[in-house]
Amino acid sequence: RAPAVPEVVHTDDSVSSLVDVDSPHISSVPSDFESQEIKTETQKDRIEHEAEAAERKTKEEAAKAAQKAKDAKAAAKAKGGRAAHKFRQNSDNPVVIGNLVVSAAVATALGVGIYKKYTAGEFSWKVGGIFAGVVGLFGVADYYVSQYLFQKYPPKK
Length: 157
Known about the structure:
Blueprint: H1 41-89, H2 94-119, H3 125-152
Transmembrane segments: 95-115, 127-150
Keywords: Membrane, Transmembrane, Transmembrane helix
Protein name: Mitochondrial outer membrane protein OM14 C-terminal domain-containing protein
């Protein structure tokens, strides 16, 4: 005779983790699912995390820009203070006084000339260009004449 076939012992403990077969296997989605911007919870979480990261980055960049602006302001203020101090030191230098007088005279003459052209209706782009060229030529000439005169009358440091 053959030996007896072993039997499987049935227990109810093993069926508790099984999927409920009575529930529908296909889940339905709304008809506008394809047109929805966010389709899944994972996608929603990813978009939220990206927005938070972008906000942190924007705040960091803003803080860096604010610090950079503050540093630039301090540097400009210091440079302006040095320039004002240097100007006060050299206020009795004849080259500086001459530059102020000549610059004021040229600016006045050009302003009156432009005003006369404007009131006569003769002011155009061409005339404006000519006046701008005169300003440029004056600036170049003033620079070289001042450099020459500063050798004779050196500025105070």
